[in-house]
Amino acid sequence: MIAEASEFHERIRSTPEGGGSITCFEAVYVPADDLTDPAVVAIFSYLDAMLVLSREKVQLGLYPAIDPLLSSSSNLDRAVVGKEHFDIAQECLKVLTKYEELRRIVAVIGVEELSKADRVLYERARKLLNFLTQPFFTAETYTGKKGQYVALRETLGGCQKIIEGRADTTPEEQFYLIGDYPEQ
Predict the structure, then answer these.
(1) 6 has pLDDT over 70
(2) Does 53 reside within a domain?
(3) Of 44, 63, 57, 39, nearest to 143 (Cα)?
(4) What does the pLDDT look like over 137-149, one tens digit per residue?
(5) CB atoms within 10 A of CB 31
(6) Across-strand partners of 53?
(7) What is the pLDDT of residues 127-170, one digit of tens each?
């Protein structure tokens, strides 16, 4: 598998003579959602970015159903996206990573048993997950929400406000498929 992947990707590279490059989108089947499968791992080194779709997010109605903790991009680099974007993205990933730990605890003992600090982080993460849903134009018929374009700056600003606690008094449901961050 590694040899085949190598040969394929070698053929789609850019050439010095042509000066261009080829963008290649690849759908990789992941057997049993196991990202450690040898065939799946073999292809990772050839990818600049990975969007890992989540069955759980689909079941929860969180669209796009992309797992932010399993997804990655070599372009999420301070030199490429800038300090502010990079720092906000890293903070979001930190909050969502801690949320995954807390989610398992909450499933057993309930949110009421979390420490105050953990409960605040847990609730902010849930708001963040809802805020990261998007009202797509193509999904209007089955979400009932009008499609909306949201600028990157708006998304980053909304994420930062949630992480900093400026949305702590706003119910998490108000962040679902909203597009722009709601002004208080």
Answers:
(1) no
(2) no
(3) 63
(4) 888 887 888 999 9
(5) 8
(6) 66
(7) 999 999 988 888 888 788 899 999 999 999 999 999 999 999 99
- Provide the number of structural domains found in the chain: 1
| Beta carbons of 125 and 99 less than 8 angstroms apart | yes
**Degrees to nearest 5, angle at CA 27 with 179 and 97:** 50
Task: Say which residue the tokens 């807390």 belong to.
Answer: 102
Residue 78 vs residues 34, 82, 84: alpha-carbon distances, Å: 30, 5, 8
Would 67 be classed as within a structural domain? no
Q: Look at residue 16 in the predicted model and tell me its pLDDT.
A: 64
pLDDT in tens, 98-119: 999 999 999 999 999 999 999 9
| pLDDT computed for residue 9 by the predictor | 63
Q: Distance between CA 124 and CA 161 in Å, rounded? A: 10
Question: Which has the closest alpha carbon to 124: 163, 158, 157?
Answer: 163
What is the domain extent for residue 180?
76-184
Nearest to 150 by CA among 181, 105, 171: 181
CATH number at residue 129: 1.10.1140.10
- 89 is written with which tokens? 């993205």
Strands (E), 19-60: 49-50
Please report whether residue 166 resides in a domain: yes
Residue 47 lies in a domain: no
| 89-101 mean pLDDT | 98
